[in-house]
Amino acid sequence: MTTGVEGSTRWPAITKDVAAFPVQPNLLDYGAARRDFSWDQARQELAGLPGGRGLNIAYEAVDRHVAEGHGGKEALRFVKADGGTRSLSYVDLAGQTSRFAAVLKNLGVGRGERVFSLLGRSPELYVAVLGTFRNGSVFCPLFSAFGPEPVRQRLHLGAGRVLVTTKALYRKKVAPVRDSLPELRYVLLVDAGGNPEPGTLDLAELLAQAPQQGHAPPGHDIADTQPEDMALLHFTSGTTGAPKGAIHVHDAVAAHYATGRFALDLHPDDVYWCTADPGWVTGTSYGIIAPLVHGVTAIVDEEELDADRWYRILAQQHVTVWYTAPTALRMLMKAGAERAAGHDLSALRFIASVGEPLNPEAVVWGQDVLGLPVHDNWWQTETGGIMIANYPAMDIRPGSMGRPLPGIEAALVARDADGKPVVKDGQAVLVTEPDAMGELALRPGWPSMFRGYLNEEERYRRCFAGGWYLTGDLAKRDGDGYFWFVGRGDDVIKSSGHLIGPFEVESCLMEHPAVAEAGVIGVPDPVAGEVVKAFVELKPGHQPTEDLQLEIIGFARKRLGAAVAPRLLDFTSTLPKTRSGKILRRLLKSRELGLPEGDTSTLESPAGPAVALQDRP
Amino acid sequence: MNDQDARQAVGAAIGKVAPDVEPEDLEGGARLRQDLELDSLDFLRLVQVIAETTGVDIPEADYPAVATVDGLVTYVAGHG
């Protein structure tokens, strides 16, 4: 895969002068931190529910700070479209999330039942997440740019009982499929304005009727969830089949806290900005939970990426720690270094990035333009939190994802010719020599590890082999223990940091009346890492015209949304297939990129594709 | 370029980048990101298509001025 960054010698290491840092990093000595760390000890940093009733993320993130006398501190600061801000303090959050939990309770929504959101980054979203935890229910965020089909599929698979959304999103993406979602009992509109759509409820009205918390001690009304109770459901895509709902439990908060401390270097006085949308796991784990558990002030931009706006936010809000993504950084690079000029970024002291491998140019660009190098880190939906990272006090090797967090054991598992992990006598065979490739694997047992895929035990089991969790990413490790991403070990596409399952896209394309068959791959893109490209075989009687090309892309965008639908589409007369009829996406990709095709002995139709139209007219 | 040509060019460019957008949704006040749901990659491509078809380059500094259909039409008409 081309987004992979190889060659550890081309870019000089970026060294650090820790003594000159304005704030002493939490992790000073990597070796010592790893040696002295244990998850049991990390759990001791949490408060736990008062009276030893259990563990609930909402208490750790909100009420704990109120109980400790910091209720007046600014928890969330929302930057509105016009650049103005509105804030919620920790005590505000306690009150509002308590009322939201009361609304759920009044509706009869119980422990373990799923509450979904389809919302922009508004205060209502943050209140809904934490209010759901308070009620002991399970939160599942959806990305508001999803089309109706991904929304329907996830609500269905997750057996969503409640959906919190806006009038416009409901009309556009949920109303048309509502009939097929019998489990979805309540749709709560945040902007009903006293006039909810048929089949929905006015959230503001329900909140107004809910009881106030009054003078009761903080957290008294929080459900007494236990560490292994389900808290979050995050959907992610695989190579085949429907999206999988990764289950996370309240115990995960121990990892959110510890990783926020080491990999994001959060200190109590920080103003922290995570640019990820809570529709994806980063925006929940590190856009909501980690900063609030650390009691910092978190910035939320209600708008989309815009270079000038982002520099203004960094400067005007005095952001100290910034967690963003390669696609965003590359867009800022594209906009030009001069845009950063004139903005006072002196408050900024640490920048991290996640979503896909960060190219060395972006790491160094950070140092040149923002005055700080960008620290890449690695994790995925299933891991729930950062697993491998570059730390403030550790030298950066540009292009490397860094070294495993304290408490995390990472290794490379050998793969056989079919890409299967090599297991001998029940133990995975590990690749131990420097700079050799294997599948990145983690030793199970950290608190934010997923506890299952909802209703899919078999798929969960297949993620483990010989005592390791297999991540699906191929990587190398250099002689000093730095990990380097090489590529995905499967056909999953990574675009703008989001995983896209090719099967999901192919299934949608095949619903178009002109499409006989479709194969979908990721192709390199300078900004997004990869973008989705479809190869389509037409049914007899349909001509490969530009109009049809646009029609099919439009068809897919309507159903899947812009984030998931193909951006490029070629017609072909011969999709490469195995004799059993399975589309060989890897071969499609080799051909597209002009790479060697490898072993084609199992191929059914080895002729190359007849491309009738340019993908970018 | 007159307003009508600019509107046609903008409509065609949006149709190319986001063929899911229905012609009736192309109201003047429609915001490209929020109402027409173009994401940031779509937007970059739209800027590219506009440059190819009309010769009008939109520098990043002017992006706020082209956030709506009308804004984009006025910009293309004024610079083309």
Protein described:
Chain A: It comes from Arthrobacter liuii. Chain A: Its EC number is 6.2.1.1. Chain A: Residues 65-454 form the AMP-dependent synthetase/ligase domain. The complex is a heterodimer of chains A (617) and B (80). Chain A has 617 residues and is α/β, with parallel strands linked by helices. Chain A has a domain at 493-593: ANL, C-terminal domain (GMP Synthetase, Chain A, domain 3), CATH 3.30.300.30. Helix content of chain A is 28%, strand content 22%. Chain A has 17 helices and 28 strands. In chain A, helix 3 crosses helix 5 and helix 9 packs across helix 10 (281-293). The longest helix of chain A is centred in the N-terminal third of the chain and has 17 residues, at 90-106. Chain A is globular and about 70 Å long. In chain A, 53% of the residues are buried. The model of chain A is unreliable at 1-8 and 605-617 (pLDDT under 50). Chain B is an all-alpha fold and 80 residues long. Chain B has one domain (3-79): Orthogonal Bundle (Non-ribosomal Peptide Synthetase Peptidyl Carrier Protein, Chain A), CATH 1.10.1200. Chain B has helices at 3-17, 40-54, 69-79. Chain B starts with a helix and ends with a helix. Chains A and B meet through helix 12 and helix 16 of A and helix 2 of B.
